Amino acid sequence: MADQPDGTVLVVENIGPHVCSFFMGGWGTNALGWAEEAAELLEESDFPHRMASNLFLADGTVVGRVLTQFGDTPGGFSARLTVYLPAACSQDVLEHHLRHFGVEFHNWILAADANRR
Fold first, then answer.
1. What b/e string do you get for 21-39 counting C-beta neighbours within 10 Å, with b at 16 or more?
2. Which of 12, 17, 20, 117 is least buried, going by the fewest C-beta atoms within 10 A?
């Protein structure tokens, strides 16, 4: 991941045998009005910490979206992590990305916990 001057982030990941390169950005802007209508959007009172982003190519073509939602619980927190990919993606790509996403957030949660101590 590499921060760009405009605040977007260049992401290069491998999903199974595929190397993917895209940008993430638009956090909290009007370009993300789609998130307010998402079927996966949970009650803000339960999940007040939300972030959404478009995944897009250098020419601006949106190729996916991300919606993350976090809520506090007595024992810590609860998370709802959603990625939207094109319907044409193969099941193999979807399964690899779900594994990647799970490992990615697992590592970030462990790092945040270690940093908290």
1. ebbbbbeeeeebeebeeee
2. 117
What is this structure's pTM?
A: 0.83
Per-residue pLDDT of 45-81, as tens digits, reads: 999 999 899 999 999 999 899 999 999 999 889 999 9
Residue 9: strand, helix, or coil:
strand
pLDDT band with cut points at 50, 70 and 90 for residue 1:
low
Q: Cβ of 56: how many Cβ atoms within 10 Å?
A: 19
What φ, ψ does residue 5 adopt, rounded to 5°? -55, -30
Measure the CA angle with vertex 50, ends 39 and 18; round to 5°.
Answer: 75
Q: Where are the domains of the chain?
A: 2-116
Q: Give the other-Cβ count within 10 Å of 55's Cβ.
A: 20
CA angle 83, 13, 91 (to 5 degrees): 50
Element (H, E) at 94: helix 91-116
